[in-house]
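PROTOCOL LOG
Step 1. Enter all chains and additional molecules of the complex.
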Amino acid sequence: MQKIRKAVIPVAGMGTRFLPATKAIPKEMLTIVDRPTIQYIVEEVVASGIEEVILITSAGKSAIENHFDYDFQLDTVLKEKNKTTLREELNNISNLIDVVSVRQKEPLGLGHAIWMARNVVGDEPFVVLLGDDLVRSAVPCCKQMIELYNRVGESIVAIQRVPMDQTFQYGIVEGVETEQDRTFKVKRMVEKPAPGTSNSDMAIIGRYLLMPEIFDLLEKTTPGHGGEIQLTDALLALSNRRGMYAYEFTGRRYDAGDKLGYLKAIVDFALENPSLGDPFRQHLHKVLSTESQNN
Ligand code: UTP
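Step 2. Run joint prediction.
Step 3. Record the structure below.
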């Protein structure tokens, strides 16, 4: 079985749900407590044993590439000022992992963004992590998926259970239980099903482990909803061709590309922060008790 060495992180989307904040700043660079969303995702990849990150970027996203690059000027200034801890912290970010960028010239959809990685990934299985999808867990979600892959040897999509009245917002998987814990064999996949058309509550989130055949299938996928190359269509074709598993990961997932998801991530991450957690909790108690007294 081939080792999973590469992670594709698409960050070329327009981030329209977060305008005007994202007019000049990529949504992946918006801060959650003390670091941008994308750094948490790259840290997950590193903690999962991945060796190379392939960022799919677009015009206006150079701040992301710069964030993981070495800044000679800044390093020299910090050195002169004896800011050793800060210097170390910044150098740790640029030493995290090898990062390669590929430009997606037009936002033609998530499927197209992943297809852009074909030459850099080559003929080996790889993981995909969406640049605005955060998962907080004891064992990194990406690592959980790689461990499952080492047992089943096929593509995997990460899923979470969602209320039935929200399934129309997700790609939904229908599948049957397997002997593996929290793992289902994919039978059907529907992108944003109309209410009442699917009885499954298993929603695909922004973590995938894919066989390289996905690139050929993406190439053959005709544009779907909104003229975009949809990933779900190619996933379904891949699952019909060689089989696919849906894995109910353990952990909490946040859609940081959505305002409410982003706010929830900030609150939860701040509460878990060793130096901020207690004073922030006290502040929240005060806010909530004042609010309930006023109502
Ligand atoms: P989203 O739909 O969440 O991103 O795509 P978006 O298009 O930036 O969001 P809104 O709806 O306009 O606010 C999921 C992921 O796929 C990437 C996005 O950057 C995000 O990480 N993506 C999407 C691309 O890289 N290219 C695309 O053409 C579309």
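Step 4. Note key features.
Residues 10-17, 56, 104, 107-110, 112-113, 130-132, 257 surround uridine 5'-triphosphate (CB under 6 Å).
The first helix runs from residue 37 to 47.
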